[in-house]
């Protein structure tokens, strides 16, 4: 038997496959630029390393009370420098463990895809996920991957231990007598870190004042 011909129908077979979420290089570059500005604003608050490592300011504390007092003052004054020390410790430990570094890079790519690259809503089971739900979900997945499924957590914990030991040693032996604990100048980088990823989103215009 011969199938009867008919006019072409606009069916599912004739429709092109649904296009996936488009990658927007401009959005990624915008986030990268804001991250760079955020990091630069923080690093500018750091003290000169010549002041951090001034050999004439080091002395042995007389007792635990003095060591604790020194540590508190030095942490308040050198907090940005101490943060850099911790970041350097984590970086070195990650470079010594390429597998952990690859896991962190994969997680970073996943975060960028969910919050920056993907332009269409994320739907699971006919339910559109809100930004808060996506944030909680990605945080939970990252926590499980880092601390339960891989050795990344152990590497990060080891790096933090090294960094905190160095900070404690420096803070307890560096006499803070010549330091000026002045935080009057508010840092421009004290914005919410999450706003870096949401700054590009369009917000409804404010109502006009009558």
Automatic annotation (TrEMBL):
<protein>
    <recommendedName>
        <fullName>PRA1 family protein</fullName>
    </recommendedName>
</protein>
<keyword id="KW-0812">Transmembrane</keyword>
<keyword id="KW-0472">Membrane</keyword>
<keyword id="KW-1133">Transmembrane helix</keyword>
<dbReference type="InterPro" id="IPR004895">
    <property type="entry name" value="Prenylated_rab_accept_PRA1"/>
</dbReference>
<feature type="transmembrane region" description="Helical">
    <location>
        <begin position="82"/>
        <end position="115"/>
    </location>
</feature>
<keyword id="KW-0813">Transport</keyword>
<dbReference type="GO" id="GO:0016020">
    <property type="term" value="C:membrane"/>
</dbReference>
<comment type="function">
    <text>May be involved in both secretory and endocytic intracellular trafficking in the endosomal/prevacuolar compartments.</text>
</comment>
<comment type="similarity">
    <text>Belongs to the PRA1 family.</text>
</comment>
<dbReference type="GO" id="GO:0016192">
    <property type="term" value="P:vesicle-mediated transport"/>
</dbReference>
<dbReference type="Pfam" id="PF03208">
    <property type="entry name" value="PRA1"/>
</dbReference>
<feature type="transmembrane region" description="Helical">
    <location>
        <begin position="135"/>
        <end position="167"/>
    </location>
</feature>
<dbReference type="GO" id="GO:0005783">
    <property type="term" value="C:endoplasmic reticulum"/>
</dbReference>
<dbReference type="GO" id="GO:0005794">
    <property type="term" value="C:Golgi apparatus"/>
</dbReference>
